[in-house]
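Q: Sequence in, structure out?
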Amino acid sequence: MLPEKVWTAALRQDGKVHEIKGPDGDMVSYHVAEWTCLRDLTGWPTGLRLIVRRLKPSRRDAKKLTAFEKHTGWHYQILATNVPAHHGFPEFPAPGRCGSWTPSTVVTPRSRTA
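A: Exactly. Output:
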């Protein structure tokens, strides 16, 4: 699992924190993290970045969670993009750098095909 310190609140296009009402009625934020430094991207286009988004699953989505997602309590989505990193977000390590944490401490969820 990625350490909590690498996750940051996801923002909407208007710059506000992306929140939804959770199943218990409380507001729940989406979180994002840069995952580029954890994968070998040899053979992929130069500049490719991997962004992971996590959110608390809705009751409807709870039926479709992987074992990893059930264990962590989060639903994960991975996005591959060639959009350069935004320089205004110091929470994201530069592509290829994991900051103060190391990839060896990360448990990688298995991808789900449906």
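The chain is about 10% helix and 25% strand.
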